[in-house]
Design a protein that fits this description.
Layout (H helix, E strand, L loop, with lengths): L1 H24 L8 H55 L2 H4 L9 H15 L6 H9 L5 H13 L2 H25 L6 H26 L10 H14 L1
Length: 235
């Protein structure tokens, strides 16, 4: 399941460029030294991945606690259904219940902080920008968070989110160098694939929760319970 996060990041990065691209375009990179510029870009991405790893750990812990109460299979099915619903329900209905609405003030402050950081050029600026960028509300990040909860393990949840972040790195890096070059037919065509893949991930989580005895895809309920019990014993 972790590798699905990488593919989600790769495909979803076309959406990310549209949402977070302006921050990438405005990064105060050193244009005189290729070496320094590369380090700055690495630092920026490291900040984003660090944020994602923390989110994955937190929500992986949430999923783990729910599993310990005996909700492992049901949780996996619920996560899968939620992923699919976020795709099939029209945007105009989803926007009424946007997860980011209750935190608009916080998001506004976050964007202001990012704006201030963009004017700086200190050693920690790029890591900080990446860290703050990773906190911005995003539908695809919500999907990845659902995945971390569904996995129900702290380090695997963290790894899931890191893989998601790694998937966005190639295109986001290209955007830094080439600007908003992805507007057009190619971007639209690839964006059409993203919902299909999210639905596939949702179905995988549902199959995982049904415990049909399919190795790697839908292990039996008994095997799943034994895995959770062994994880709990180790901690």
């Amino acid at each position: 399941m972790v590798y699905t996060a990488l593919i989600l990041g790769l495909l979803g990065s076309f959406h990310c460029v549209g949402m977070c691209g302006p921050i990438a375009f405005l990064l105060p990179l050193d244009r005189t030294s290729k070496y320094k510029r590369t380090l700055e870009i690495i630092s920026y991405h490291s900040g984003r991945l660090f944020t994602y790893s923390i989110l994955g750990f937190i929500f992986g812990l949430v999923g783990k606690r729910l599993q310990l109460f005996g909700f492992q299979q049901q949780l996996s099915i619920l996560i899968g259904v939620a992923m699919i619903l976020m795709i099939v329900i029209p945007n105009n209905i989803l926007n009424r219940y946007s997860l980011s609405k209750p935190i608009y003030k916080w998001v506004s402050k976050l964007k202001s902080t990012i704006g201030l950081q963009l004017k700086k050029k200190e050693k920690g600026t790029f890591f900080t920008l990446g860290f703050l960028n990773g906190l911005l509300p995003c539908g695809l990040v919500y999907m990845a968070v659902f995945g971390a909860i569904g996995i129900g393990n702290t380090w695997q949840g963290s790894l899931y989110m890191v893989f998601f972040g790694l998937g966005t790195v190639p295109l986001m890096t290209s955007a830094i160098y080439l600007g908003n070059f992805l507007k057009g037919t190619i971007r639209k065509q690839i964006l059409k694939v993203v919902p299909i893949f999210v639905v596939i991930i949702g179905l995988l989580f549902i199959l995982r929760g049904l415990g049909l005895g399919i190795k790697y895809i839908s292990p039996s309920n008994q095997v799943a319970v034994e895995q959770v019990s062994s994880q709990h014993a180790c901690h």
